[in-house]
Design a protein that fits this description.
globular; mainly alpha; single chain
Amino acid sequence: MAGVSRSEIMSGLFANMVLQQTSMTLMLLGKAPHPESGKSLHDPEAAQMFIDQLEMLEVKTRGNLTPEEAGLLKQSLMTVRLAYVEAVD
């Protein structure tokens, strides 16, 4: 990719991964339909694994993220944690 730095590519890949994990979590909590079947899923245990992975990313990358990356991760975690609480109540 001409004109795009390695840092920008890595930042984009990081954001994409966080968004994928967030989407999977929301789908498993019935907050978004399955992309192929259109059906609602309810698998809190699987969703918890994705939440744990996002939390691990937060711990392992602390101090190494741009403000935008850190903000995206923080917002994603708040979203999935709230969705989890709503789904299991």
